[in-house]
Specification:
The structure is a single chain. 32% of the residues are buried. By secondary structure, this protein is α/β, with parallel strands linked by helices. The protein is globular and about 70 Å long. The chain is built from ten helices and 13 strands. The termini are far apart. It has two domains: 250 residues, P-loop containing nucleotide triphosphate hydrolases (Rossmann fold, 3-Layer(aba) Sandwich), CATH 3.40.50.300; 29 residues, no CATH class. The protein binds adenosine-5'-triphosphate (ATP). Adenosine-5'-triphosphate binds next to strand 1, strand 2 and helix 2.
C-alpha cells in the first residue's frame, strides 16, 4: 500500500502550517512591506517586517531615525495601508477593510497616545471632560461616563487634576490624562508614538508607569515607539527596527538572585526571521571587516560566522 500523501494532503498540511504563524498573537505582521512613491522616487520604509505581539504584552519599538517605526505604528493604527504582506490587529485584517470597518477599528479597537499633547487633548475641555469625550461618541450614558472618567484619572495618578484644562497641567500630567482618554472605550490595543519625547527623564518615567498600569490593570496590549534608552526596564520586550525590519529583541525576565531576591534580567537577541535571515550588529561586522559575504559553519551547539578571506588567498 502506498502511504505517501497525495498532492491535496500536502497542500492541506502547508495551509495548516501557514495559518499557525501568529495564530494566538494579538498583533501579527508577516513580511510587511510599505513603499512610499513620491514624484517618481520610491522609498522602501518597511521591507518584509515580521512582528508578533501577544495579548496583554507591553512592547517598545526602538530604532534609528528613518528605520520605519512610525510607518509601522501608523499601519497598526489603521491610518496607513501597507503595500504588501499581512497586518492583523485584534483579528482585524488591515489590508482588507472597507472604509466603514476602518473607522470602527480606529474608534473601538485601538487607542492612541501621540507625542504632542495638543493632538491628544482638546484645550477647552477639562481632564475629566476629555476622558468622557470618546465615551460620548460611543453613546455611553452620562453617569457611567463620569464614574469611568474619575476611575481612569485615579488609575493614572491624576485624579486630583480632573477639573483642570490641559494648559493648567504639566506635560507629564497631560500625557497621563491622554492615556486615560486612549483607554476610555476599552480598546484592545494602545499605540503610543514617542509619548515621553517632550518630557524630562523623571516625568517620562511617570508616564511609562501610567502606561504600565493601563497595560497590567486593564489588560490592554501596548506598543510604544520610543527613543528612550531606559525603556527596556519598563516593558516586557524591546524590539529593535533597522532598515524597515525587526533586527533585535531585548527580553526582560524576572529571576531570583543567589539570596532569593527578585532581579530583572534583560537579554539581547538577534531576530531570525522565517526565511532564515538575520541582521548582524553593525559593530560586530565592522570590527571584523565583514562585508558582502561571510563563511558559515554549523557546530554542535552554535553557528560560526567568519569574514570572507578568499580575496586574500588570490592576491
Ligand atoms: N509620507 C511619506 N512619503 C515618503 N517617504 C516617507 C513618508 N513617511 C516616511 N517616509 C520615509 O520612510 C522611511 C521610514 O520613516 P519613518 O517615519 O517610519 O521612520 P521612523 O523610524 O519613525 O523615524 P523617526 O524616529 O525619525 O520618526 C524614511 O526613509 C522616511 O523618509
Amino acid at each position: 500500500m502506498n502511504d505517501a500523501p497525495n498532492l491535496a494532503e500536502l497542500e492541506r498540511r502547508a495551509g495548516a502550517r501557514a495559518s499557525q504563524y501568529g495564530e494566538n498573537a494579538h498583533i501579527v505582521c508577516d513580511n510587511l512591506v510599505r513603499i512610499y512613491r513620491t514624484e517618481g522616487v520610491e522609498v522602501i520604509a518597511l521591507q518584509g517586517l515580521d512582528l508578533l505581539v501577544g495579548k496583554g504584552e507591553m512592547v517598545a519599538l526602538v530604532g534609528a531615525s528613518g528605520s520605519g517605526k512610525s510607518t509601522l505604528l501608523n499601519i497598526l493604527a489603521g491610518l496607513d495601508v501597507p503595500t504588501a504582506g499581512v497586518a492583523r490587529v485584534a483579528d482585524a485584517d488591515l489590508l482588507d477593510m472597507s472604509g466603514r470597518e476602518r473607522l470602527r477599528f480606529r474608534r473601538e479597537l485601538v487607542g492612541f497616545v501621540w507625542q504632542q499633547t495638543g493632538r491628544n487633548l482638546l484645550p477647552y475641555l477639562s481632564a475629566a471632560e476629555n476622558v468622557e469625550m470618546p465615551m460620548r461618541f460611543a453613546g455611553r450614558g452620562r453617569k457611567d461616563r463620569r464614574s469611568r472618567a474619575a476611575e481612569l484619572l485615579e488609575l493614572m495618578g491624576v485624579g486630583h487634576r480632573a477639573g483642570a484644562r490641559p494648559a493648567e497641567m504639566s506635560g507629564g500630567e497631560q500625557q497621563r490624562v491622554s492615556i486615560a482618554v486612549a483607554v476610555a472605550n476599552q480598546p484592545k490595543i494602545i499605540l503610543a508614538d514617542e509619548p515621553t519625547g517632550e518630557l524630562d527623564t523623571a516625568t517620562g518615567a511617570e508616564v511609562f508607569g501610567a502606561l504600565r498600569r493601563a497595560n497590567r490593570e486593564l489588560g490592554v496590549t501596548t506598543v510604544i515607539v520610543t527613543h528612550d534608552p531606559d525603556v527596556a526596564g519598563n516593558v516586557d520586550r524591546t524590539v529593535g527596527i533597522r532598515d524597515g525590519r525587526t533586527s533585535s529583541e531585548i527580553l526582560r525576565r524576572t529571576t531570583l538572585d543567589a539570596d532569593g531576591r527578585e532581579e530583572i534580567v534583560a537579554a539581547e537577541y538577534a531576530v531570525l526571521d522565517r526565511a532564515g535571515r538575520l541582521q548582524l550588529p553593525r559593530e560586530f561586522t565592522s570590527a571584523l571587516e565583514m562585508k558582502d559575504r561571510v563563511r558559515l559553519a554549523l557546530e554542535t551547539d552554535h553557528i560560526g560566522v567568519w569574514p570572507d578571506r578568499s580575496h586574500d588567498d588570490h592576491r
